[in-house]
Design the sequence.
């Protein structure tokens, strides 16, 4: 049992963690420990973890930091221990407490980042959180973010992952976001790490009425990644957009798992996930739209398109619809294929080399996701990064001055 | 088409009668002795008994599957009788063939199954199976002239043991799944078809299954072998009496398709679906699989699923011959408290293989209807091509329609497409029909028939008419 190392570790350091952490987080810690020690890591027999070998990813002996992260204080962003409101009714409430990976985070996270946008406030600038993985030994970090968007609040949140050192880093991230009535949240996650990094991310979003939520997850360079996003639409007339793109080659693995729950009538959701796989990369997409009984007038569309460039690539896709209401319009489409021969031929006729033509087509394929991003500056930057990535010039993070 | 629907719209399950015929039923319960007894009653050779016993021992180590989107009642396997023989009342005739009880003949006449040669005009050879025994197989002589073997599997074990031994369990091994293991241990009758090289079967072959006896299950086993360049179209139909208890039907169908051969397999499944409150009905837990071994071989599954309280059925294709083509067309209708979890698997192994999946689900009442499918392209399956489309239609706000498609692609030259939609009947279409004086119920029937047309058109003529009628009956009372 590989989860034993985490159980033993927690028993040893339980008191240290409690001392460094805050009451709100400590209150949920023991319960999470019970869940984790009872369930252990999910095996590939668990439907939601079918495409990811969790136990293997968590098997190495990682160092775990037990002091709080030195997060900056800004207008809307501070450590949870210094929260400007009572966060007890929010912390670890919408997260799936039965999920072992989430439980492991709840059990080991020392501090959380708290983003709070008050009522009818619009954050003028995007809130950017850069996570830079540094260290001289293999490290696991348990990152926790709590976002509260009050009624009518608006914000763009950009979370980036970079690795500065060539070490094995394991990130276990849990984000909980509450979106009050009539709020707008654009959440971007951009991963540009290295082949030795493993990332587990669980995002939980709860929406009130008339909300607009957009979650975009871009995996540009990674080792092993599993991103899960679960959206619960509990208020009428809300709209959710989940987009994602993946560029993977070598031995990279990316697994995106989404669940959108339509609990009430009149909401809409859209999903678009695109993968470009090369070398021996493995991609997986498991999306599910669940329309509860009575959630009439739901409109939902899920699209997953994938490009496989070599014989060694593997692509698993599983777009699921589960519908218990009759007056709905739901659709999903999924394709796995190659670059269009005619388009390649067209470009070659015009003197563009095969290599360049392939790059152009791949970039165009991915661009469909990038173009949906409303932030112009981010969009421009991502176009550049994607182009560099396709050309193999993005082996480590771009633009940071650490290395 | 609406005439057809109107004609049947006020009918309940019309095959719910019971035939009073002397039936020999063995005691309820399942252990090794029961398996031995079944084997003994059928006068089976030693190797088949061993096959059954191996399957039984394996079954005992397994748990029933729980992954399907079904709320399945717990089945007490010791409360079922595993062998019922309605032909036991008659002594063997001179030529070794059993004479048929007139009551049995009446039953099949009532069901509209032509057992007599006078029905030659129908042009269909029938193997009629009631409970655990094949009652009669027609047109055997005529088929034999072409070298075609069409008989019950028990007869095949006696007369063609080499063929049966070679192919039995080669497509669905007894370790395949829980219900396949159970079937392999206790299977009773089913049909055996062998089409020799280069022969185009001159008539449609058909098997009709009926559960009659109480407290029994039916465990039929069908094996179809289509040799090089041969062709056969095979039909399967089924009914059962109305009973308050759940009856178990766990069948296996194995199809082997050789070089350039073609098999068409059509099913109209109309087991008793239980009453409006979900009481009784047949639990239809079936493993069907075709192995396309030959180059350019073809197999097409067409199914219309209207009956059964629970359907757990995934007719699949293993495309291992280069250039093999497989098709799956399905209409699944659920009403009241019926549950269906059905779909297909297309496993591409050979090069330039092609598969098509068209699935139409219609759910009404308080039913749950799921499509579950897998498209797998192996690393060597260059040029594999798949197109899947599964649509669901919802009639009423208390039913559910679900889609669980899986795609595992291990090859860069594969092109796999999947699309699915779920919606209700368009108000505009209904309004259009109503404007023209068509009642709501007829309009729904009309629209549903149009929706299912892609699949129904693939059925042989006689079946298509029956299927259309069934759609009307199954959806009766679901509108408004």
Sequence:
């Amino acid at each position: 049992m590989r989860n034993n190392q985490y159980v033993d570790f927690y028993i040893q350091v339980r008191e240290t963690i409690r001392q460094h952490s805050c009451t709100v987080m400590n209150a949920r810690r023991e319960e999470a420990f019970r869940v984790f020690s009872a369930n252990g890591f999910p095996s590939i027999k668990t439907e939601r973890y079918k495409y990811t070998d969790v136990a293997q990813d968590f098997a190495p002996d990682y160092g775990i930091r037990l002091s709080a992260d030195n997060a900056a204080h800004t207008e809307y962003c501070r450590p949870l221990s210094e929260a400007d409101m009572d966060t007890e009714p929010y912390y670890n409430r919408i997260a799936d407490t039965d999920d072992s990976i989430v439980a492991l985070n709840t059990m080991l996270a020392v501090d959380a980042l708290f983003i709070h946008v008050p009522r009818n406030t619009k954050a003028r600038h995007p809130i950017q959180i850069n996570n830079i993985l540094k260290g001289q030994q293999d490290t696991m970090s348990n990152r926790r973010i709590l976002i509260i968007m009050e009624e009518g609040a608006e914000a763009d949140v950009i979370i980036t992952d970079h690795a500065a050192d060539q070490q094995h880093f394991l990130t276990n991230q849990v984000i909980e976001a509450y979106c009050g009535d009539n709020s707008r949240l654009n959440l971007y996650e951009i991963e540009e790490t290295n082949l030795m990094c493993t990332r587990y991310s669980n995002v939980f979003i709860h929406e009130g009425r008339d909300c607009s939520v957009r979650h975009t997850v871009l995996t540009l360079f990674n080792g092993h990644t599993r991103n899960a996003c679960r959206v619960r639409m509990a208020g009428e007339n809300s709209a959710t957009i989940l987009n994602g793109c993946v560029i993977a080659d070598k031995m990279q693995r990316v697994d995106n798992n989404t669940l959108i729950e339509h609990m009430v009538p009149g909401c809409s959701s859209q999903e678009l996930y695109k993968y470009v796989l090369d070398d021996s990369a493995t991609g997986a997409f498991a999306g599910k739209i669940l329309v509860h009984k009575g959630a009439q007038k739901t409109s939902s569309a899920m699209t997953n398109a994938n490009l496989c460039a070599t014989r060694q690539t593997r692509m698993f896709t599983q777009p699921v619809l589960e519908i218990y209401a009759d007056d709905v319009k739901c659709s999903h489409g999924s394709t796995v294929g190659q670059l269009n021969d005619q388009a390649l031929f067209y470009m070659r006729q015009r003197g563009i080399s095969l290599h360049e033509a392939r790059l152009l087509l791949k970039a165009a394929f991915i661009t469909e996701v990038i173009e949906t991003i409303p932030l112009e500056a981010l969009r421009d930057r991502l176009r550049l990064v994607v182009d560099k990535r396709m050309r193999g010039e993005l082996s480590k993070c771009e633009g940071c001055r650490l290395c | 088409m609406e005439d057809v629907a109107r004609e049947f719209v006020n009918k309940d399950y019309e095959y719910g009668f019971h035939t009073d015929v002397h039936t020999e039923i063995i005691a309820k319960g399942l252990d090794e002795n029961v398996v031995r007894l079944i084997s003994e009653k059928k006068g089976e050779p030693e190797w088949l008994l061993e096959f059954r016993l191996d399957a039984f021992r394996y079954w005992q180590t397994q748990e029933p599957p729980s992954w399907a989107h079904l709320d399945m009642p717990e089945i007490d396997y010791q409360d079922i009788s595993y062998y019922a023989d309605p032909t036991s009342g008659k002594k063997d005739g001179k030529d070794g063939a059993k004479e048929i009880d007139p009551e049995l003949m009446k039953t099949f006449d009532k069901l509209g199954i032509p057992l007599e040669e006078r029905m030659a005009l129908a042009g269909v050879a029938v193997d009629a199976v009631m409970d655990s025994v094949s009652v009669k197989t027609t047109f055997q002589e005529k088929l034999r002239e072409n070298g075609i073997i069409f008989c019950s599997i028990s007869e095949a074990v006696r007369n063609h043991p080499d063929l049966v031994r070679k192919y039995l369990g080669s497509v669905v091994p007894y370790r395949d799944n829980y219900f396949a293991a159970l079937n392999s241990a206790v299977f009773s009758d089913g049909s055996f078809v062998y089409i020799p090289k280069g022969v185009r079967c001159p008539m449609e072959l058909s098997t009709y299954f009926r559960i009659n006896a109480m407290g029994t299950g039916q465990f039929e086993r069908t094996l179809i072998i289509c040799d090089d360049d041969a062709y056969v179209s095979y039909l399967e139909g089924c009914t059962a009496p109305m009973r308050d208890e759940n009856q178990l039907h766990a069948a296996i169908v194995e199809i082997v398709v050789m070089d350039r051969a073609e098999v068409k397999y059509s099913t109209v499944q109309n087991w008793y679906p239980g009453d409006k409150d979900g009481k009784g009905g047949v639990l239809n837990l079936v493993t069907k699989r075709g192995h396309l071994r030959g180059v350019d071989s073809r197999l097409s599954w067409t199914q219309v699923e209207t009956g059964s309280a629970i359907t757990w059925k995934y007719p699949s294709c293993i495309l291992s011959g280069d250039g093999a083509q497989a098709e799956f067309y399905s209409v699944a209708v659920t009403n009241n408290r019926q549950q269906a979890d059905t779909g297909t698997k297309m496993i591409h192994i050979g090069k330039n293989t092609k598969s098509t999946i068209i699935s139409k689900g219609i759910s009404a009442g308080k039913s749950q209807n799921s499509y579950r499918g897998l498209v797998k392209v192996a690393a060597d399956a260059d040029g594999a091509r798949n197109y899947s489309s599964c649509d669901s239609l919802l009639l009423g706000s208390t039913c559910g329609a679900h889609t669980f498609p899986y795609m595992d692609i291990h090859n860069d030259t594969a092109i796999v497409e999947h699309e699915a939609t779920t919606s209700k009947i368009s108000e505009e279409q209904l309004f259009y029909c109503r404007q023209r004086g068509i009642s709501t119920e007829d309009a729904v029937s009309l629209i549903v028939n149009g929706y299912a047309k892609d699949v129904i058109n693939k059925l042989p003529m006689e079946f298509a008419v029956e299927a259309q009628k069934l759609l009307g009956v199954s959806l009766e009372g679901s509108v408004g």
Notes: The radius of gyration of chain A is 21 Å. Residues 4-341 of chain A form one domain. The mean pLDDT of chain A is 89.
